[in-house]
Design a protein that fits this description.
Elements (H helix, E strand, L loop, with lengths): L2 H21 L4 H27 L5 E3 L10 E3 L2 H27 L5 H19 L4 H19 L5 H33 L16 H14 L11 H4 L5 H10 L1 H24 L3 H20 L4 H21 L3 H32 L15 H15 L6 H14 L3 H26 L16 H19 L2 H7 L8
Antiparallel strand pairs: 1-2
GO cellular component, one term: plasma membrane
Subcellular location: Cell membrane; Membrane
Family: Belongs to the CPA3 antiporters (TC 2.A.63) subunit D family.
Length: 488
């Protein structure tokens, strides 16, 4: 199979899986086996595309013209390859987890769940391999629509309200900001194709560049920059595998990935650095990562705390690209991956606690360590990764982001990063500490009751990956360093 055919096949895996899941909807074992097979197939395809990229012949595809010079395009480049590998590998692991969770929690409409799960990863793959802004926008909007049924899966009034907030914020930011930014880019530069170094000529009016940057940052609502972040906590009404999908695999990563890609391939670091609005947006990112951390500390519901933690961690990635220095791009690229594995582990643990112990509040978890030692141990390791502490992969992404902030001379943002890290330790790290070492009259005794095997298997894989990325970050770093403008 040619590399171009492989590229197109990566978008066909999901729809084919949906067709098979629909046919097998009354047969759980074959249906879920098909979901796993589709996940394995997509990982294999993406690895072959990585080989093509490494060989110096990156695949691409261009559709017919919709308007003169305006068409759908697909292209494999290092940043997109990074996102595609993360999305496909974690889709496979999340599918394993979802099988145990959905059965253990006796969820209804499981065939529908796995169908939209597959469609969501197809949309994320389309975003990863988008060759221009038109293609990115198409798959970006399709991702919002494909994940909405997952958010409202429970069918309760609360779920429907959460779904309205979710879709309302994401669609409104796209229509009001993202689409106008794309149209202005087209009329100004004459192209929407992602180009290393950017698409704007040196004589583009500075006020236009500044305005476009504002439109893109707020238009990519999935990046959850304040004040357009409410959709993310609202979506926590979804089943935990969906929360994991939203926070680590597809939606939020699609947002920050899009910001990095636009920064690198539409603006370029030189134009980005010269934008008059960049510094204001940079400090907004700093405010977001601090404010969201403070809000997270006040949340007793575990998934709500993790949601606000995600808002904060996404701001790290946005901050990295807005620094407009090579180290910032490196740090942002690494943090897309490091946060993905750390945060998905935390959500896996939250779901395991709900299935096995029927607890959803942080205040209920004291003393749970002896009943669920595997789950709470994994929670501790993932918390260290989110905080950026050894021996976990998050250490390296936070390291590069800190160096980039120092390189840019933004001392207030250096302080914000340090304070946020300390807050991470408090609002995440103390949870497993209190679970293993309760104080006062809190009992830590109880019968061992871990989640179903499929859930524990998925937790084990992502937890080990958090550790492995600390010891062996070089393959990931090598890929990230090939992003135009990145550097150590």
């Amino acid at each position: 199979m040619s590399s171009t055919a492989l590229l197109l096949a990566s978008l066909a895996v999901g729809p084919l899986a949906v067709a098979g899941i629909t046919l097998l909807r009354q047969h759980p074992n074959p249906r879920e086996g098909l979901s796993l097979a589709a996940g394995i197939a997509l990982v294999i395809i993406n690895l072959q595309l990585l080989n093509a990229l490494n060989s110096g012949a990156p695949p691409s595809w261009r559709g017919p013209d919709i308007l003169p010079g305006l068409r759908l395009e697909l292209a494999v480049e290092p940043l997109g390859m990074l996102f595609a590998l993360i999305a496909s590998s974690l889709w496979l692991v999340t599918s394993v987890y979802a099988i145990g969770y959905m059965r253990g929690h006796d969820e209804k409409h499981q065939a529908r769940f796995f169908s939209f799960f597959a469609l969501s990863i197809t949309c994320a793959t389309g975003i990863a391999y988008a060759g221009n802004l038109l293609t990115l926008f198409l798959f970006y909007e399709l991702l919002s629509l494909a994940t909405w049924p997952l958010v409202v899966h429970a069918g309760t009034d609360r779920a429907r309200h959460g779904g309205r907030v979710y879709l309302g914020v994401l669609l409104s930011t796209s229509i009001l900001f993202f689409l106008p930014a794309i149209i202005l880019t087209w009329t100004t530069s004459g192209t929407l194709t992602f180009t290393p170094g950017g698409v704007f000529s040196p004589d583009t009016p500075p006020v236009l560049i500044a305005g476009l940057l504002v439109l893109f940052v707020f238009g990519v609502g999935k990046a959850a920059m304040m004040p357009f972040h409410r959709w993310l906590p609202a979506a926590m009404v979804a089943p935990t595998p969906v929360s994991a999908l939203l926070h680590a695999v597809a939606v939020v990563k699609a947002g920050v990935f899009s910001l990095v890609k636009i920064g690198v391939y539409i603006f370029g670091l030189e134009q980005l650095n010269a934008a008059a609005s960049r510094e204001v947006l940079l400090y907004l990112a700093g405010f977001t990562l601090l404010a969201a951390s403070i809000v997270a500390m006040r949340q007793d519901n575990l998934k709500a705390r993790l949601a606000y933690s995600t808002v904060s961690q996404l701001a790290y990635i946005s901050l990295g690209v807005l620094l407009a220095v090579p180290g910032g791009i490196t740090g942002s690229g690494l943090h897309i991956a490091m946060h993905a594995f750390g945060k998905i582990t935390l959500f896996f643990c939250a779901g395991a606690i709900m299935v096995a112990a029927h607890k959803t509040e942080v205040s209920q978890l004291r003393g749970l360590g002896r009943q669920m030692p595997f789950t709470m141990g994994a929670f501790l390791i993932a918390s260290l990764s989110i905080a950026g502490l050894p021996p976990t992969g998050g250490t390296w992404s936070k390291w590069y982001l800190m160096l980039a902030t120092l390189e840019a001379g933004a001392l207030l943002l250096v302080a914000a990063l340090i304070i946020s890290t300390l807050l991470n330790i408090v609002y995440l790290g103390l949870i497993p500490v209190r679970a293993f070492w309760p104080t006062g009259s809190e009992s830590s005794a109880g019968q061992l009751r871990e989640a179903p095997l499929a859930c524990c298997l998925a937790i084990g894989i992502t937890t080990l990956t958090c550790l492995a990325l600390f010891l062996y970050p070089q393959p990931l770093y090598t890929l990230v360093s090939r992003i135009p403008g990145a550097g150590g």
